[in-house]
Amino acid sequence: MHHSGEFSFQVDRNDIGQRLDVVITAHIPGCSRAYASSLISEGSIQVHGARKKPGYRVKAGEAISALIPPPKPISAQPEPMDIDVVHEDDDLIVINKPPGLVVHPAPGNPTGTLVNGLLHHCPDLKGIGGEIRPGIVHRLDKDTSGILVVAKTASALTHLAHQFKTRQIQKTYLALVGGDVTPDTGRISLPIGRHPVDRKRMAALARARGKHPKKGRHREAETRWAVEERFEGACLLKLYPTTGRTHQLRVHCSTIGYPIIGDPVYGGIRARRLPALKNTHGDRLSANRQMLHAWKITFTHPASGEQDTFSAAPPQDMAELICALRFVGKGVQTL
Question: Is the entire prediction scored with pTM above 0.85?
Answer without folding.
Answer: no
